[in-house]
Amino acid sequence: MFQEKLQPFIDRYNEINTLLSSPNIASDIKKMTDLGKEQSGLSKLVEKAQKYIETAEAISENRELLGDDELGDLAKEELAELEPLLPKLEEEIKVLMIPTDPNDDKNIYLEIRAGAGGDEASLFVEDLFKMYVRYAEIVGWKVEIVSSSDGTAGGYKEMIAMLKGDGVYSQLKYEAGVHRVQRVPDTETQGRVHTSTVTVAVIPEVDDVEVDIKPNEVK
Questions:
Q1: pTM higher than 0.85
Q2: Could you read off the pLDDT of 116-166 as tens digits, one per residue?
Q3: Separation of alpha carbons 37 and 47, rounded Å
Q4: 176, 200 in Cβ contact below 8 A?
Q5: What CA–CA distance (Å, rounded) separates 127 from 135?
Q6: Domain spanning 108-204 has what CATH number?
Q7: 3-state secondary structure the chain
Q8: Which residues, 6+ apart, have CB-to-CB distance to 167 below 8 Å?
Q9: Which CATH architecture has domain 2-96?
């Protein structure tokens, strides 16, 4: 039964809530951070799961009332509203149950480099970077330019920036690869269409790692 598959997620969510209120966890910053991320990842699933269980119980209760002379008609009306919700909730929950990429919540380094197309490719790098910056502004991310190399006729041969915010990697990881544009560039004087390419790399920020080096291991 699908409902039985949901209970472990609800139990784990409640367990995390209990752990986060423990003084022992509060003194362990890394553990508390990890639990907070796990809790955040489960919150939408648990919300939908509880809605599914409530809806299933309401459907069951109304079905029992169908034969009642006084409440039968009302139960029939409520069933007409509730029953279509259950398969929709089930599909939404199945999507939320798909394991997430452990890097999804990380900040990223965004690297955009000019490929084929000469000066026009450099202009395309600039256009693409402006697009990502605009999107970051809309969703509330922070953009920090790490390094850049100017093109000879404008734009950039290379642009490297760090994007910080919620779910940056999860939303931009599929942007990685070769991007192509066909257009009449500003550098073209005879109106010919040029094809230019740029490469985009999306690299998740690496977590800090503590390394314990003993004095006798240093030469």
A1: no
A2: 888 889 999 999 999 999 999 999 999 999 999 998 888 899 999 999 998
A3: 16
A4: yes
A5: 12
A6: 3.30.70.1660
A7: CHHHHHHHHHHHHHHHHHHHCCHHHHCCHHHHHHHHHHHHHHHHHHHHHHHHHHHHHHHHHHHHCCCCCCCHHHHHHHHHHHCCHHHHHHHHHHHHCCCCCCCCCCCEEEEEEECCCCHHHHHHHHHHHHHHHHHHHHHCCEEEEEEEEECECECEEEEEEEEECCCHHHHHHHHCEEEEEEECCCCCCCCCCEEEEEEEEEEECCCCCCCCCCHHHCC
A8: 104, 105
A9: Up-down Bundle (1.20)
- Gyration radius from the chain CA atoms: 27
Q: What's the length of the chain?
A: 219
Q: Domain boundaries in the chain?
A: 2-96, 108-204
